[in-house]
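Shift notes (night). Ran Peripherin-2 while the centrifuge was going.
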Amino acid sequence: MALLKVKFNQKKRVKLAQGLWLMNWFSVFAGILVFSMGLFLKIELRKRSEVMDNSESHFVPNSLILMGILSCAFNGFAGKICYDSLDPAKFAKWKPLLKPYLALCFFFNILIFFTALICFLMRGSLETTLAQGLKNSMKFYRDTDTPGRCFMKKTIDMLQIEFKCCGNNGFKDWFEIQWISNRYLDFSSKEVKDRIKSNVDGRYLVDGVPFSCCNPSSPRPCIQYQVTNNSAHYSYDYQTEELNLWHRGCREALLHYYSSMMSSMGAVVLLVWLFEMSVMVGLRLLHTSLESIANPEDPECESEGWILENSLKDTLKSALESLKKIGKFNQVEADAEGAEGEEGGKTPAITTVS
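Came back to this:
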């Protein structure tokens, strides 16, 4: 028994073809939207590529861009088929291509669905990329005179100001690295010498943070040096008082920014997938309803359209049997080639009569 069998007359076939033509062009615009989202995400990721450890994060925007291009191509082609289906003479040239095209549409919809899932599931990979990238970038904050790294200070300062964050996981991350360049240290000062000597790696570590960690909304002047030294500041206790520094780490801030963006994009792609599925089902009904016309010379006669010619169970069973036959055929061919090779390797014995 056919799956989702529907009876059609000429009027219904025309309405279906016209509706699908319109839906296909809506799908083209949806493809442009998906392409634009991928392009926007790629630009946003490239803006902060210096604080990311690798290029794996670009897999999502690249997938969106590819799906957008394919969606425009597939739906533009389907729109042409639906338009020509109103004319039997024009539709005849598309008949041999419809089955392969519908099979391609099926695999294309699977790809769209997986692209939507990737948008939701990339959070873990993105978090690792950001954590390692920010950690490495903070080490280069002081290298304002080093070619290739001189821009890193500005990049991190602008990042902390824009996203209202400080450090990788928090402001204390700055205590563990030397973020002040040796160029601006007075090595004749006893304090500087003592700090460098007290460190195993010979680094100048301070309990301070860059100016970009300061929260301008705080009524108190920013305390960015000797943050943990209560006696250095009047009426101050860093453990109990709400500091005038940004509390949130930049990894968390960026992760929230990109994750919410990709989740929204994933939701849009899921809606596009549902729309594409409905278009594919409609195109299949149109295809079968036109093929099942009993008398092609009488376009007004009734016909039947369906999604699957047999039930889902029977269709899966026949597909499995076909795969088994293909497997057996390949096995027979491989055995035959092996036998030919063995025969070819044997050399006939030559007897000599003296």
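The first helix runs from residue 10 to 47. The chain has nine helices and two strands.
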